Amino acid sequence: MPTLIEAYLFSELSEESRKNVRDWWLRCCNDDELACDDATEQFEYILAELGLPTDVHWSLSCSQGDGVAFSGAVDVEKYTTAHNLRGWGPIENVCSISITQSGRYTHWNSMDVVCEECYSEDSTDFWTTQFITQLVEHIDQRIKEVSRELEALGYTILDSYRTDEYIDECITTGDQLFSESGVCIGVKGDQVTI
After folding, report:
1. pTM (2 decimals)?
2. Strands 111-118 and 176-178, bridge-based pairing
């Protein structure tokens, strides 16, 4: 003969039982993939707005070598506009600059700036060379800052998917039923037999 167990909605549980449910949710039902997608989309958007490459690589698990790195071509015109460098000279039409990533780590110090090609006959001109050198130095400094900013943003995004408020919202939008101690026993409408 089946045993009847009282079933409760999350909102009807004691605080201790709610903690058990949150722990269960973090182990089994969390939104890590959604959080990762959200972080990646945010990183790509910010990088594109700054004229930096959007091929982003990241690892944010509080371990050595973690961080955010990106590689690819810099949109020099967009970069100089986004950083108010328009008065620096004709550099937008003169050079191709890219960011490379080296090593197995993905953080602010795993990227290098490379000036690949110069297109102008004036590219050997002293002032043009100075402009290019200053721009490469500016980009090198800025990518390190942006990487650190994205790392902090990434941890904030990932942490937001693990807050009690977020988990409670996810649980209460579902129709899960729980035992008095907070064990998930089914979904509202299911016939649960033990």
Report:
1. 0.75
2. unpaired
Angle at the Cα of 163 from the Cα atoms of 159 and 168, rounded to 5 degrees: 145
Tokens linked to 182:
């907070």
| Burial classification of residue 177, based on how many CB atoms lie within 10 Å of its CB (0-12 exposed, 13-18 middle, 19 or more buried) | buried
Q: Tell me which residue of 93, 100, 92 sits closest to 72, measured CA to CA.
A: 100
Among residues 137, 139, 66, which one has the least CA distance to residue 105? 66
Q: How many CA atoms lie within 13 A of 111 on its CB side?
A: 33
- In angstroms, rounded to a whole number, what is the distance separating the alpha carbons of residues 71 and 62? 22
Along the chain (194 residues), what's the average pLDDT of each consecutive run of 10 residues?
Answer: 76 90 82 82 95 90 80 90 72 76 80 77 63 88 95 89 86 83 76 53
